[in-house]
Design goal:
Layout (H helix, E strand, L loop, with lengths): L11 H5 L9 H7 L3 E5 L4 H12 L4 E6 L2 H12 L9 E3 L5 H11 L3 E4 L6 H6 L1 H21 L4 E5 L10 H15 L6 E6 L2 E3 L5 H10 L4 E3 L5 E2 L1 E3 H14 L5 E4 L5 E2 H11 L7 E3 L13 E2 L5 E2 L5 E3 L9 H13 L2 H10 L6 E2 L1 H12 L1
Parallel strand pairs: 1-2, 1-4, 2-3, 4-5, 5-6, 6-11, 7-10, 8-13
Antiparallel strand pairs: 9-12, 11-16, 14-17, 15-16
Helix pairs in contact: 3-10, 5-7, 7-8, 7-12, 12-13
């Protein structure tokens, strides 16, 4: 299937039925202006948009780190008008390689690190859990160690709504990544995470398949008639991640207010209507292993507290020390390919939780504010 992009006349605001919010406060501008920043996963959907916005905010130096040389080449071409990857701000490296990361971080000496590198494809990670563990858990810990070792003042870990009450390998590894990175904070390096849901147009997302199917007049495959997801545009998500970096209380997880969850079936019909395509034939395929019918951003073990930004909430501070006991066992299981032991460690540490969604959390925030 070729890459699909939304119809040029269809904006995220049209598709979601609400306006985008990409506005920087003075604090974000002051924090980024003239600062040395490093972005991991810089070639990905969120990472590359972070780089674009950091460029507009006039960061002093932006280091682009990724293990995908093609993505780095494309981003360099877009930003600079040439693909000369000899530039010193391009870093081809794998976050699984701690020694390599420390060398690159020591050379770059970034003040702020945005960690967007991750494996994110839910069904594939159910099949290959060791890859999720090695990249999402230990790769994230490596980034946190390298950031602290090189003296960065802030590390912002990009997380996902699937980390709240995780039912998938993706969600469980990202939840542990929130805790493990927080556990590597130091007096000099503040480490926080930012959690949000799906972004419209991200590379490899199911929405690309949906758009491609509608544009080519094919039956549209949706897992369940009732399935809903939180959605946000890529610029909106990246902008709010930058805003959250201003707060950066060490150990905190920040949650982006993504509005109301959207029913995927409604999204398919809306896209067809906006592009004047025939109303699509829908085929329901059933939820895949690890998938939820409805995602959540906050669970009962957390409290969504207000911040100075109306679109950003703060979850209860996580305790990075609490997961260190099982992390080394998890490393051994991943190295040996023991999938049963990996799953036991992932989900015994994070049993199913009773969950609440963000609209309920917003109500509790209103009460706290009163």
């Amino acid at each position: 299937m070729p890459a699909a992009t939304a119809h040029p006349r269809v904006s995220a605001a049209h598709l979601l039925g609400r306006p985008e919010h990409v506005v920087y406060g003075d604090s974000a501008r002051q924090l980024i202006h003239g600062t040395s920043v490093l972005v991991t996963g810089a070639g990905g959907s969120i990472g590359s948009e972070l780089v674009r916005q950091l460029t507009r905010l006039q960061a002093g130096t932006i280091y682009l780190l990724d293990h995908d040389e093609g993505a780095l080449h494309s981003l360099q071409l877009e930003l600079c008008g040439h693909g000369l990857l000899g530039d010193g701000n391009i870093i081809l490296a794998d976050i699984r390689d701690l020694a390599s990361l420390i060398r690159h971080f020591q050379r770059a000496q970034p003040d702020i690190v945005f960690h967007a590198a991750a494996h994110k494809h839910l069904p594939l990670l159910e099949r290959f859990p060791a890859e999720a563990v090695k990249t999402n858990v230990f790769g994230s810990r490596n980034v946190a160690l390298a950031a602290a070792y090189s003296g960065a003042s802030r590390l912002v870990n990009v997380s996902t709504d699937k980390a709240a009450s995780p039912t998938s390998v993706l969600g469980a590894t990202k939840r542990i990544a929130e805790e493990v990175t927080a556990g590597e904070a130091s007096r000099r390096t503040r480490v926080s995470s930012v959690r949000f849901g799906n972004v419209l147009g991200s590379r490899g997302s199911f929405l690309q398949s949906l758009i491609w199917q509608i544009d080519n007049r094919l039956p549209v495959t949706i897992t369940d008639e009732a399935v809903t997801r939180y959605f946000m545009s890529i610029p909106e998500a990246a902008g709010l991640v930058i805003e959250a970096s201003v707060m950066a209380e060490s150990g905190a997880t920040y949650i982006l207010d993504m509005g109301e969850p959207v029913r995927i079936l409604d999204l398919a019909h809306r896209y067809a209507e906006l592009t004047q395509a025939p109303d699509p034939t829908i085929v329901f395929t059933g939820l895949r292993p690890g998938e939820k019918l409805h995602e959540v951003l906050v669970d009962r073990r957390e409290s969504a507290l207000p911040t100075d930004h109306p679109k950003i909430f703060k979850a209860l501070t996580v305790d990075g020390e609490s997961v260190k006991r099982s992390v080394e066992l998890l490393a051994h299981a991943a190295d040996s390919g023991d999938e049963d032991e990996m799953r036991r460690l992932l989900f015994d540490e994070h049993p199913d939780r009773v969950v609440i969604n963000l609209p309920e959390a917003r109500q509790s925030v209103d009460l706290v504010g009163a």
